[in-house]
Write a structure and sequence with these properties.
Layout lengths: L2 H16 L8 H15 L7 H8 L3 H9 L5 H15 L6 E10 L9 E5 L4 E15 L2 E9 L3 H4 L2 H6 L11 H14 L6 E4 L1 H4 L2 H9 L4 E5 L4 E3 L5 E2 L14 E2 L7 E2 H7 L1 H4 L4 E8 L2 E14 L10 E8 L6 E7 L6 H8 L3 H11 L12
Parallel strand pairs: 1-5, 5-6
Antiparallel strand pairs: 1-3, 2-3, 3-4, 6-14, 7-10, 7-12, 8-9, 11-12, 12-13, 13-14
Helix pairs in contact: 1-2, 2-3, 3-4
Amino acid sequence: MDAKQIRSMRPKLKNLLKHFDDCFSRPETRGHLATYVQGQLSDLPRKNCEPIADAAGIPPRTLQQFLSLLEWDHELMKTKLQQLVARDHAGPGSVGIIDETACPKKGEKSPGVQRQWCGATGKKDNCLVTVHLSYARNDFHCLLDHELFLPESWSNDRPRCRAADIPDEMVHRPKTDIGLELYDRARSNGVTFDWLTFDEGYGKSPGFLAAVRERKQQFVAEVPVTFTGWIRPPRVTTRRRSRVGRPAASARLVGGSRPFLGVRAHLEQSPELRDQPWQPFRVKDGEKGPMVWEVKHLWFYPNGTDNLPMEPLHLIVARSVSEPDKIKYFVADAPRDTPLTVLLHVAFSRWRVERCFEDQKTELGFDHFEGRS
C-alpha cells in the first residue's frame, strides 16, 4: 500500500485496533501499535523497526522496546482476535487449517533454531519452526493462532532457553500436540469449524486422527503413501490362542487375517481401488486456469496405534490431470453420503494458509524481523 491508501483506511484501522486497547497496560505503549501496524502495511522495502520508525518520525529504539521490553498481553490479543473472527466470519463452509512454517536463520540464538526441515528452502536447514492454525470461509482467511516448536535439544538445555527468554514451563512437545492445543483454544473462544484439514505431517499419525475424531470434528487429512490400513476390515478377537488359561483382555487380529497395506500399495494391488475408474473433478480455478484432478474413492479402515483397524474413513486418491505422476492421498471423517466435491474442496483448501504465510513473510516483513527472544 502507498501512503495515500493507508491514510484513507486509517479510520477503519483505528476502530479495529481499539479492540485491543486493554491488551496494553499503559496508553503510550498502546499508541505504538498503530505506528507499527501502519509500517507493516506500508510500501517500505524493509519492515523491521528502524525503517518503520524513521518513516513515522520517531526514534527506532522506541519500536524496538515496544516489541521486546514493554508490557503487553499476547494471549489476550490472540483471544480477542479469535472472538472477532467468531463474531464476524462464522457460517457454513468454514475450514480450519493446521500447518507449520519455517524461517531460515544463520545464528544459534533465535528461539528454537536448529538444523531441521525448512519448507522455505526445501531442505534440512538452520531454521526455526512455528505451528499455526488458520481459518478460511468464502473469500476470508486469516491466521488465528501460533506456537513455537521447541526442539528437544533446546528443551533439554534450560540455560540456553532462559537466555532466549523461553519460560521454564515451555518444553518440547510434538507438533501434533501443539496443533490440538491451538484448535482447542480457538474452540474455547467461540470459533467453530465445519471442517479441519492438515498435511501428511499430521495426517500420518493415527493418534492425532483419533484425537480429532474424539472432538467430533469432521476433517480431511492428507496422508503419506506409507499410511496403512485395510479396504476390507480384518476379523478381530479377544480369544486366547491357547485353550488354557483365562481369556485375554486385549483384542488382536484373527490368525491368517490379510495384512494391512500402504495406500499406494492398495492403489497398485487391491482390485477395489486399482480397477476403479478415475473420475475427473474441477477442484478450483488457479492462476494458470482450472485445476482438474482425477479421483478414486472408497471406504478405508486405517491401522491404529494398536495395529488394529480404526473406525472407517473415506479414502480419496487424487491424480493431477496436467501432471499424472503427481498423486495425493487423503482420508476423511465425514458421513458416507458426503459429496466428493465437498471433500475435495476441503482437501485442496490448504493454499489459504500458504497464502497467509506468504503475505506474512513478504507484505508484512516477517522475514525482516530479527528476534533473539
